[in-house]
Design brief:
206 residues; Rossmann fold; seven-stranded mixed beta sheet; 7 strands
């Protein structure tokens, strides 16, 4: 049931992502515009790219809430930008929103990929000598081992300056064996915000 929910997340989500551990999530790679270090953004438009309306709302709303907890203004694109049935945002609509809400940055998060790997565990060798090893190997070859499925979800997150459209920060995240869609969302948001704070791209904590 759990794997089914994660696979569903993979099918209906997004396309962007992370060296900070947070539960089952870590940032594998990050890139920062050194010219922007120590120059925090103040107001962010959050855009999650998904194929499912409710999931997009959930992702963006949680991001907005965590940004506000970190002391920065943010707004969900799902709340302020009308979209087509295909949920593709037009650039003019984004510009209209950032002008209205005075956003100075846009953050975009999307799925990079999902890896599903079957792991088979077999009994350790207990025999001695060549025939003991032969019996162990024969048994492992002719009898099924214990199998489990390991799922890894990879997301990408990019932060852009509104005026210049330049990339300020990007990260690639990896969530191993997620328990739920909510865990993926919560953990990715946490590691992203932590890295933005580390690079002083968000206002200092009060």
């Amino acid at each position: 049931m759990r794997n089914g929910a994660i696979k569903w997340f993979a099918c209906v989500v997004l396309s962007g992502v992370l060296i900070i551990a947070c539960g089952g999530t870590k940032l594998n790679t990050t890139k920062v515009d050194e010219a922007r270090l120590g120059k925090p953004v103040s107001d962010i438009l959050v855009i999650a790219i998904t194929y499912e309306k409710e999931l997009r709302h959930s992702f963006e709303d949680k991001f907005v809430a965590q940004f506000k907890t970190a002391g920065i203004e943010a707004v969900s694109s799902a709340d302020v930008i009308p979209i087509s049935e295909k949920q593709q945002l037009e650039k003019d609509a984004i510009l209209k929103a950032v002008n209205k809400f005075e956003n100075d940055a846009v953050i975009i998060i999307h799925m990079v990929g999902v890896e599903e790997k079957e792991i088979i565990t077999r009994s350790p060798s207990s025999g001695r000598g060549y025939y003991g090893h032969y019996l162990w190997a024969y048994g492992n070859t002719h009898q099924p081992g214990y199998s489990s499925t390991r799922i890894t979800v990879r997301l990408a997150t990019n932060l852009y300056d509104v005026k210049t459209e330049k990339l300020i920060w990007s990260g690639k995240s990896e969530t191993l064996r997620p328990d739920s869609v909510n865990q993926i969302i919560d953990d990715v948001i946490k590691v992203v915000i932590q890295d933005l704070q580390k690079n002083k791209l968000l206002p200092p904590k009060k």
